[in-house]
Amino acid sequence: MSTKPAGQDVPGFQLRDQLRALFEIGHHPLYPPPQDPGDLEGTIFQQLHFSNASHEKVRAFYVPPKNTAPGPAVLYIHAHGARYDIGARELIDGRPALAGPMGQSLADLGCAVLCIDLPGFGERCDKSESALAKKALWYGGSLAGQMLGELHSAFHWLGSQDGVDSSRIGLFGLSMGATFAYWLAAAEPRVAAVTHLCCFADFAALIETDAHDLHGPYLTIPNLLNVASNGQIAGAIAPRPQFVGIGDQDPLTPPHAADPALGELRAAYSGSAEHLHIVRDAEAGHTETPDMRRAVLKFFASSL
C-alpha cells in the first residue's frame, strides 16, 4: 500500500476523473426496456426489465412521475445485508434495517423513483457475489465497478423520462446502497442531492481493526485508498446537498472510523455548511431510526 496520504493535493476535477475510471462509469450500459412496463396490480409501481451488454435481464421497479410537468426523481440503491433475494424489491417491501418501505414515501413527496437489481441480487441472484467479484477482478475491474456503472446508466435513463427534471435527481441508499450513493454522486456532477445511511466510515481506520472484513468482496476496488478516502470522496459532492445518517453502535460506522470521515466531510462543506445534514445516534446500530426517516424525507422535500 502506498504511504502517500489519500487524495493529497488532488484537485477536485482530477479526483472526479480518477473516480469515474475506478468506478467504471460509462462501461456497463443498461439498455431500456423494449416493451411497455407492467403495472403491479394495486400498487404505484411498474416492473421493468433492462438488459445489459451480456444480454442479461435486469429487473427494476419504477414509480413514474405523477405529472407531465418535469419534477424531481430519486434513484434508489438497494442494500446488501446478505439478503440476495431482496434486491430491488426493497423499494416496495423494505428490509429489516429500514424503518419501513421507502417507495411510497418518496412518491408522496412527488418524486419519480427507480430501483434496479444489482448483480447477484433479486432476479440476478443465480450468480454468487464471490463468483462475480472474482470474475471482475480477473478481467481488471471490480464488482463494485460493474454495480456503479449500471447505476450510472440507470441514473441517465431516469433523467431522460418524460415528467422528470434531469436537474433534480437525488440518490438514496442504506448500507451497500449508501456507499454507492455517495460514490456515484462524487463521480457524477449531475446528481442534485444524496442521502446515505449506515455506511459512512474511513476504510483505512476500519482496516486497522480488521472491521473492513465485515464488508463483502463486492466492495473491493483496487487502489481506491491510494486515490482518496471516503471522507474526501463524499467531500467532492460539496456544495450539493448531502445527508448522512449513522449510529455509533453500528460495526460498519464505529466512532474511530466515522470521526475522521466526518471531519473531512465537514471541512469540504466549510463554505456551504447549510447543505450538509448529519444525523448521528449514539445508541443506534446498523439500522435506520425513525428520526433518520423523518429527517430524510424533510431533506428530500427541501433539496429536490
Shape: globular
- Sequence stretches where pLDDT stays below 50 over 5 or more residues: 1-9
Distance between the termini: 40 Å
Please tally the β strands and state the result. Answer: 10
Largest sheet: 10 strands, mixed
Helix-residue proportion: 25-40%
Q: Give the rounded overall mean pLDDT.
A: 94
**Helix-and-strand structural type:** alpha/beta
Oligomer: single chain
User: How many separate helices?
Assistant: 11
The portion of residues forming beta strands comes to: 15-25%
Sketch the topology as an H/E string, one letter per element.
Answer: HEEEEEHHEHHEHEHHHEHEH
Radius of gyration from the CA trace?
18 Å
Structure description:
By secondary structure, this protein is α/β, with parallel strands linked by helices. The protein has eleven helices and ten strands. It has helices spanning 12-22, 90-93, 103-108, 129-138, 143-159, 176-187, 203-208, 224-227, 230-235, 255-268, 290-303; strands at 30-31, 38-39, 46-52, 57-63, 71-77, 112-116, 164-174, 193-197, 242-247, 276-281. Strands 1, 2, 3, 4, 5, 6, 7, 8, 9 and 10 form a ten-stranded mixed sheet that branches. α10 (255-268) links the parallel β9 and β10 (276-281). The chain is globular, with a radius of gyration of 18 Å. Mean pLDDT is 94; it is low at 1-9.
